[in-house]
Design brief:
It is a single chain. By secondary structure, this protein is α+β, with helices and mostly antiparallel strands. It has two domains: 192 residues, 2-Layer Sandwich (Nucleotidyltransferase, domain 5), CATH 3.30.420.40; 121 residues, no CATH class. 37% of the residues lie in helices and 22% in strands. It is built from twelve helices and 19 strands. The strands form five sheets. Strands 1, 2, 3, 4, 10, 11 and 19 form a seven-stranded mixed β-sheet that branches. A five-stranded mixed β-sheet has the order 14-13-12-17-18, sandwiched between helices. Strands 6-5-7 form a three-stranded antiparallel β-sheet, with helices on both faces. The chain starts with 8 loop residues before the first strand and ends with a strand.
Amino acid sequence: MKAPSSLPTIGIDFGTSNSAVACRVGTQARLLPIEGAATTLPTAIFFNAEDRTTHFGRDAIGQYLSGTEGRLMRSLKSLLGSALMQEKTAIYDGLVSFEDIIARFLRELAVRAGRELGQMPERVVIGRPVHFVDDDPKRDERAEESLRIAARAAGFREISFQLEPIAAAFDYEQRISKESVVLIVDIGGGTSDFTVVRVGPERAALEDRSDDVLATSGVHIGGTDFDQRLNLERVMPQFGFRHHGPQGREVPSKVFFELSSWHLINWLYAAKALRQAKDLRTSYADTRLHDRLMTVLEERHGHRIASAVEAAKIEVSLSDAATAIDLDCAERGLAASLTPDDMAQQLAAPLESVIACAHACVKRAGLRSNDLDAIYLTGGSSALRPFQNALRRSFAGVNLVEGDLFGGVATGLACATSTQRRTA
């Protein structure tokens, strides 16, 4: 049996939308392929009710979109800190808690990492946002504890946590040749986190880096929030959002907010939720909109539409041109559109809150924006064009450096040693 010190330690970036795993070898860390050659895995689980099997990542999403009967679950990280964590939900092999579902996902990451390493990892450093839950320390602590319990159930014996933006700072440090003061910007699926940190080649060798972390801040806004807003404003009107009924009152909006939120969509397929949705028909002046809504709910197309919105957001950001959102699953030939101006307008309010949080972090460090040597971007949503444009305007003259958007945090976690926040 290998000595404990020789057992592999991995870093897991358990993300709202995507996850990644890295392993430290000597003084260097490398990302591990965990789905074919890919070093990222969509944080998705599909419970196939037809053959009673469980699928993960792209395979899970593919199974669901192909029409296979079963249960797709995404944005699991968004549940941490909520009362839902201890509740049970039905899958093909019975009732399971959401904590157990997260444990299954972490276990799958460990198994896939083990195939690459030649042995199952027992030690892990898991990334966590600055705040799982804004302005509620008790719920935030409960969220981390739930993740700890899930990791233990997944088979890890030694479990540590590190703030995700600090992990990204470790990754950035490997890229520079002189000491710098940097604002680390980590925009993930569920949170936006910021750290002002002093980094440099000579500082990388220090065992205690606590004095190098000048300030941290975070806000519970991320890519899935952007997707929800675009879904609500550009797609949900096709199903009755903000539609006025015969009495001049708006159709109740709760169903549309849930239908545009990844982690709530499945609840709408339950018998009670379907009955409530059917009862909304009298609230519609144009019942064709209600017909579309019921088609989406009864045929379970909610995740398909959410995926289409996410894909449109990415396409518009990359191309800076308008794109169509296919809604053919609700009604033949139905579509919505998304333009760069639409996206900039709809995301202006949440992005303003994100940018304000970045400035608050710099101020907390006792600095001004022009004292920064660079802004380092990580997290998939930091590639969003409206966000980068807003950041450039607000931090004029500061160099923006785009890192490994999906793998930088995992790499930094694998490098984390004495700066780990807690050990279980």
